[in-house]
Structure formats: structure tokens, C-alpha cells
């Protein structure tokens, strides 16, 4: 299954003054199977989402949300996310659970996993591309995977570069818990004047790139994923130029299709 973040498609649709059902239908003709949707999109644009899904027939590869367990481990926002996953026939959700308190994050993620188990939805974390995150490297991610029984990983190929870690070696350490891949490529050189940068721990800046155009060892990760044929492959282009993001998505779809 090849998917794209719904919000990335929306950014391009708005920039090019196009309706989402039209854009998604065009991307489906280029190889798109599914979309990956945030809880905020579901709350703010639910009628549009229904129109897109109904008119194009694309699936929902999963849902994602920022849920702050760090300051409030009793936060139950995960219930909305998991309930929506059931309704939309997705089988997984990704939660980004806050920053400061590992103990509170563990407590909140355990509650989310428990509810997900009841509802038949797998709950995931990812390594995050923020230097203030306790799970911005593979050791940090492993801490939470080990501390929360039943927690899965949606592995982001492009986030560990901020810590200077090898993404292929990192993937190998957690691949038994991986149930989806965020295909995020990076480049050291800006492709468009309005691409947004990320600052790495060593002070260098890195930029988004269409999948296959950057420095991330994408092909090797796909080769290393024994179950890549059944994993959702989710193209991600946050921070890419809004005026060029639809072209970037199309180039990414073309590259991923060639790998299969």
C-alpha cells in the first residue's frame, strides 16, 4: 500500500487552488492507494475527507495525532483517534506524545495501547525530528517501545539524521516492531527557495526532498523490510515548498512504484 499524508496533499491543493477530490483522484491514477490523516484534519475538514474517500475510493492507511501525555498523562484524546480509525477501517494510529516527562509519556501510551487493544487498533510511536524530544534517537525510541508492552513503531526514515544516526542501522534495531514506514527523504541543499529547514544537532541544516531524491538510504531500508510488501509505505513531504509539493508527491510516487 502506497499512501501520502493527507495534509501534504492539502497543502498542494490549496496552493494550486484545486479541490481535494480532484487532486486525490489524479494522484490515485499515479499510484496512490491510501491517505494518512491527522486528528485535526478529521475535526476541521470531516466533510471534505468523506467526499475524498467516497469519490476516489482510496483507503485510509492510518491516523496520526500529537497528544500531550507529558503534561497530562490522563489525557484521553487517544479515544477519538482510535474510534475514528475503527470507523475509517484503518488498523493503526500514530501518537506523538509530548516531550518533557518520560514517565508521564509511558503512562499515557500504556493507556492508549490498552484502549487500542480493546478496539482492535495498533498504536505506534516514531523517532521524532525535534532535538528537544526524548525519542529523537533510536535509543530513546527503544526506551518507550520496551516500557510500553504492545506498542508498535511507525519508522520514519528521515528523522534520525538530526542526531547523526544511521537510519538503516536504526531500522534494523526496531524492525520487529515496525508496522509502517514514513518515507521521508532529506537533502543538504535546498531545492526550492521556500523549503523549510531543520537544524541538526551538529549545527548543519537539512531540507525535505521527494522520496528517492535525497541522501536517506531509502532503497536499502525497503530491501531490509522483510514485510515491505504488506507494510503501508507513507510518503511524507512536510516543510516542502507548497507551490511544488504536488510535483514532489508525484515524483515520490513514481520512485516508490519502481521499487516494487
Task: Provide a brief overview of the structure.
The protein is α/β, with parallel strands linked by helices and 260 residues long.
Overall pLDDT score: 95
Order of helices and strands: EHHEHHEHEHEHEHEEEEHEH
Beta-strand residue fraction: 15-25%
- Estimate the helix proportion, in percent: 40-55%
Low-confidence regions: none
Q: What general outline do the C-alpha atoms trace?
A: globular
Task: Considering the chains and any ligands shown, give keywords for the structure.
260 residues; alpha/beta; three-stranded antiparallel beta sheet; 10 helices; 11 strands; 19% strand
Description:
This protein is of the alpha/beta class. 40% of the residues lie in helices and 19% in strands. It has helices spanning 6-15, 20-29, 39-44, 46-56, 78-87, 102-119, 138-147, 167-174, 218-224, 245-258, and strands at 2-5, 34-38, 59-66, 92-96, 122-125, 152-156, 178-183, 185-187, 198-199, 205-209, 233-235. The strands form two sheets. An eight-stranded parallel barrel has the order 1-2-3-4-5-6-7-11, surrounded by five helices. β5, α7 (138-147) and β6 (152-156) form a beta-alpha-beta unit. The longest helix is centred in the middle third of the chain and has 18 residues, at 102-119. It is globular, with a radius of gyration of 17 Å. The mean pLDDT is 95.
